[in-house]
Structures
1.
Amino acid sequence: MAAVIRNDLGSAQYYGAECLSKGANKGINHTRNIHEDEMSTTHINATKSLIQQMAEDPMLVLDRMAFQNGAVDLGLGFPNFKPEKKITEALSEAATGNDYMLHHYTRPYVILLEPFYTPYKDMLMIRGAVPVFVPLHPCLDGDKQSSADWVIDKAQLENAVTQRTKAIFLNNPMNPLGKVFDREELLDIANICIKHDLTCVADEVYQWLTYGGKHHMHIAKLPGMWQRTITLGSAGKTFNVTGWKVGWCLGPKHLIQVLQNYHFFCHSDQPQYTTSKKTQSINTEKSESEAVAVAFEKEMLILNTPDSYLHTFRKMAEEKRNKLCKYLNNAGFKAIVPEGCFYIIADITNAQGALMNKSENTDEALDYKFAKWAVVEKKLCVMPFSIFFSKQHRHLSEKYVRLCFVKTDETLKKAKDIFDQWNKN
Ligand SMILES: Cc1ncc(COP(=O)(O)O)c(C=O)c1O
């Protein structure tokens, strides 16, 4: 059977940045930097082992044994006598006072701009938050289409904000669309954040990857936004080591401190600062964070010169973007030219296979049916665009698929051969 060409996952298919491996100074096995299929098994095993470890936690074991044996319990760290009166009185007042909402769940509402990076939704829901979906709308006409043609409806965004809304997630440049928000658009979002006192989570992991002369702007730099913005970055996306899962966050002290506490308790390890305190960057993998810090320090010395890795990677990625757009357009797809990120969204309407199984009466989105058809019939793996939307806005996305273009020239050539034959059989 012919091999399936994978243009779906968002990991660049090259060696990690050279400056990183030098930074790590420990002979990295390059192939291990890339997301692997076995990751899910590893993850399940890790979770199982964590559950087992917790069951075997000496504190829990001894506490259980103390109860079973009627032991004098000097084990656990709590005073076994009455608490301070002030505090119990305050509790009583809180329980009987007028603020009855203190007795109820309060779930923070968080706005996700669609298309969204899929883990956002799950992460929010696991923590009891309610995602509120606000889609970007395509204003596409004519043949030349760009990710810039997908825009926010300002009124719709503002209408989505209620008393319970706490935050907006802004992914800029935006996976999977490749949209890079311009100053006017960022100002619209910033004004809504300020007016309604919202926190902005600015996921800027693709900040270095913009094309066609488009510049990325940090929303945190707009007036009034630093105090309410957490900006996220990723070594994986910056230095092409997507398996490292090392990142950083920047923001004002009052927000970063909360994250540090959260991180500390979730990872039972001291947060590590990858650079000076100024950048407040945290993660758990010490040698990898050291490598990221060293790589940045080296990179900063040559930034904006042709030797800069960030410059050469961006240039190479742009060339690959242009190639894949051409292959897609030649085969009857319509590429929405991305201004950033790793991906192209392509309109499948006029490509063979688009109407495949359309009449089938299932709830599956058309683009998902198409992707399943393409992987079997064309040996090409692409991602349905609709997985990045809520069900209620699926109709905006069903005629597109996502393809990752940061692949070796060899892989892109194989994809080209498939596209060249697309309508011939
Ligand atoms: C938009 C976005 N945010 C965050 C991440 C996570 O980055 P990392 O894998 O480096 O943690 C990704 C990875 O694909 C992404 O696309």
2.
Amino acid sequence: MGRLNLCLPFAGIAFLGVSTVFAAPTFKSCEIDGQGSEIMCCDLNGNGLDDLVLLDGTDLSIYFQDSTQGFERKPQQQFRLDGRPSLVWPARMGKKAESLLMMTSDGVTEFDFTNETSPPARQEIIRQKTIIPEAMDETNAMYFPLSAKTGGDWPLLLAPVADGGLQVWQHQDTWRLAQFITNAMNAIVAPFIQNPGYSEWFTLSLSIGDVNHDGRDDLMVDVDNGDGTETYRLYLQNTNGLFNLEPALVYTNKDNNWRTTIAWTDIQGNGRLDLIKSTVSDEQSFVPGLPSGKVMVAVYMANQDGRIPDAPTQVFRKSDWSGYVPVVDVDGDGFMDLVLGDIPIDSREGFRKMITEKKFNLSLRLHFFRPGAGFSNDTDYERTAPVYYGSDLGWSPGDRLYFDKLLSLNGDFNGDGKKDLLVRDDKDNISVYFLNSRESGFSTRPDLEFPCPEQMDWWQIKDLNGDGISDLIVKLRDQDLFRIFISQGK
Ligand SMILES: [Ca+2]
Ligand SMILES: [Ca+2]
Ligand SMILES: [Ca+2]
Ligand SMILES: [Ca+2]
């Protein structure tokens, strides 16, 4: 059996919004029916509005966005990819509308949906043996983007091939193999326990994003060295639309284990990647069997030459059981800020109460970054957020706490360029508290409430209609239903 094991290692790259006069916008809600674990947002017909592609096994359902109606409940198109393991992602291929690309064991195929009413036009664009398995016990397609924007009409396409190599394909009239990056990923042979014998599996850990803000996506790869260390390499994209094969950054993490989480982000917006490394303590709390939740957060600011220093520049502590640190530019001044959390459990009784009420209080501490001074050592602003976690079995906030459910600071729900607090704060609602200023922090009462009396699996934040205000997609649990809240302009 083959196994796809994919992850995206670095935190999102900040988008600096434009400050304008604002009020609480109104949101329209709609629902789409459909099964699937992943949803892709992309503009398939080129009308400037993101459409939704729901991925379920190898079945795709397409919901086109209408500027007044939002989304209709039923998909306008459904079709099935080839019955083989594949990676799928959207990319803009020489025109305004985006296409869906599918990579299988023998190359890349483009699906073009510009004619909404007929099935997509299909074209094989790259014929090349890749490391995607030819067959698996359970055949499915998963979302994994393998294209890099160049600032021009065509992206670069990346094809992982044998022996850990990554091919870079460039479009010049036709698709041509332009570059080869060696040692870009792990492809190892590992024993598969249930089925004696050996089968190949691979891990692909790479991230594509514009690190130095020149409009060209850069590439970071992460290779597990197999000795408890891993090596990150950053390749910047040149003005000729290819990668500089001399890495701009090489960093070996000597603590490659479950307790350590690494996030790469450009804190100062100077084009150099900085490192935030958090380590979860294995100390026990006073509740038997419950770890203490203490986490050490070490910030390494890159040197002038882009290198990561041996010793951390600043060290912080938090206690929220999460190796994940939300690094976002909360106040929109162009510098990333640090958000630290604490979940106080003072007693066994307190812990019991937390379990029975299905709610805990998360204390958020904001440390704003100031040029020349770094993150403030003292907390700039502190705020308690009640978090309702519902019937999630057990209690393990872990990385999911900040990521894709319960709480997020990745959205701007009034379009003022400042990030707002989105939190599942009671069993009926997901609430938004606007960030008013550094000093006064988030609103005391919710500015927006998105109704969600059902159990939910996760949410996704994205500006689907391009009005500069974040929209919200909520996946409901145990129902083939997604609820979508779309802003109606500023
Ligand atoms: Ca770049
Ligand atoms: Ca900031
Ligand atoms: Ca805002
Ligand atoms: Ca919007």
